[in-house]
Amino acid sequence: MELSDQAALTSGSAFWKTTAAGDVPAITLTDGPHGVRLQSSAADMLAGRPATCFPPAVASGSTWDPELLRRMGEALGDECRAMDVQVLLGPGINLKRTPLGGRNFEYFSEDPILTGVLATEWVRGLQSRGVGASLKHFAVNSQETDRMTISADVDERTLRELYLRAFQRVVTQAQPWTIMCAYNKINGAYASQDPWLLTEVLRDEWGFEGLVVSDWGAVVDRVLAVDAGLDLAMPGPDDTGDLEVASAVRENRLPAEVLERAVARVRDLVAKSLRNKQTDGYDAEAHHTLARDIAARGIVLLKNDDDVLPLRAGQSLAVLGEFARTPRYQGGGSSQITPTRLDDALTSLTATTAAPVRFAPGYRTDSATPDEPLLAEAAALAADSDVAVVFVGLTHETEGADRTHLDLPLSHIELIARVSAANPRTVVVLSNGAVVRTSPWDASVPALVEAWLLGQAGGSAIADVLSGRVNPSGRLAETIPLKLSDHPSYLDFPGEGGHVRYGEGLHVGYRGFDAREQPVSYPFGFGLSYTTFSYGPATALATPEGVEITVPVTNTGSRDGREVVQAYVRVPDSRVRRAPRELKAFANVLIPAGSTSTVKLFVSREDLAYWDTRLAGWVVEEARYTFAIGASSRDPRTTVFVEVPGSPGWRWPLTASSTVAEWLADPTGASLLREAFAVDSPLTSMAGDDGPFELLSGMPLNRLGTFPGSPLTPETVAKLVEQANG
Ligand code: BGC
Asked: Is residue 43 very low, low, confident or very high in pLDDT (cuts 50, 70, 90)?
């Protein structure tokens, strides 16, 4: 193939098309992730052809149900085929580092295991239809402020254990056809031209076999990008960039085989896509029903005092708040879908209930200022009805902009106050793509339903849950803090001068709240049901593959229901810093009323491992691990201990510049050092009789040797090092 054709293949030919060159035809990529947004108008980049608007990740993530995500992936795959789309740009799996993140509605969770498990199934579902996924945004794209230039400065252990972990899981378990590199920099290097990220980690370590595509407009320097491992720069055309790539090869600034490799990956992606290309239709009705099922399962019941919910037959309802009639069901930006139809909660509730349903808008959506006549009308209806259901939330969330605070609009808070004062049986239904502050107003209402952004069938899904047709089983995939300043990310967001320091390190989300023993409004993993569950004692078994946990869970209520059984690990006395609780496994189980299920959870050794910075690798620490099994991160119901053998042969290396403490932490090192100190000298007397060596503990061995009277001459140190590592 001509060099110019090769170069052209590594950029797009249009906004959503790859380039056709030589014998390689073009394919279509499009957004993603919760629907197929195939651009329908040349004049409006965001307008798409009608497609099922499934629940955005904020809601599908709250289902904690990989099976549902797989079905959603399959349905999306069918719609892609029907629209002749070969790659769907999703899922978005960045961590919700801060509740202010402008794209939080597009991301699953603040936890990498939950994110990774769900996204793996989404990708498997989509790709089972012969359509490629594009795992995005690789990596650390957790804020919108300065998203195209900011450097996310993250230490390597945090990167590996938190921000890269879900990517690693999906890549190794589902091999997405493509992965999309992020706009931002990581520790100073643009993700789009970082050989460490795109080649060393992604391909050499994880074995990624697919193609790396840039986020739209992420590439600064095409030659550096190709050299780093980027295969396809989007969008296109980029004739200047193509020429630069070709000249770089001609002038030996870019190895020819590097470009050939990128071309081979484009060729491979196109071939895979075309093998599967088929433009059959899809069942829009069935997809709407699936969207409704997922939406209902993503709703989280946060509060339900006195069993106000489910609504009882015959109760008259005051439905208040414009969102009941005009739903907010997705966020703004590239993921915005033109739905095939749109359900609103008011119509669905009216259809579900035999008793009278009356509506008042309560606020205007174009202003946050409370409107007295609207408030008075709503309060009067509430006072005159058996139950008041108030729909409030955020009026606007979009890609491109982070939020600046966590609060609901003032007019919505005021509506809650007026309605709950008028009727003690007030249910608040929230519509929001990222968490909002619920304190202190939640104390004034008996029931609170977190209904997120639910996609096109959200209105029916809300009616399903309120009426009890669906027993709620959604769980929080992110913590709801009491206030913004409690959040672990608070002091280091959104950064300045082109850098954002991930100062909370490993303590992202609930890990940070738990480490600082801070109260929260609603913890990670939390969610109520219309039934209740009790847990029997868990048992755990260490196997060569990991840890198998078994726990009997009984539905003690009178309705069938789903429990999300969660396993959190703790390693007491760990040699490294760890969060007090880390989600390692979960199971979503349907348990009939009165029955007991034996729930099995499996934690692989990969998931138990931590990233050891000294060894620059994953290590399973030999220890007695504590698993708290329960209904949320703060609701352990049974605890089980298990001895887990360490990674074979792992040991921190001992060198002349390792400290006394490091030597003492190593059994061989400790006995050698104690032996060396078992001589009379002014220094050994300082070390104390039984040798806690406290005073000396921070000293590197080789510098200890410079102290008068030290038994550690350079020769002794060299010998110790040799013996310790021999
Ligand atoms: C977004 C991506 C999206 C792409 C194409 C970018 O601005 O970050 O998520 O897939 O545009 O629309």
From this structure: confident
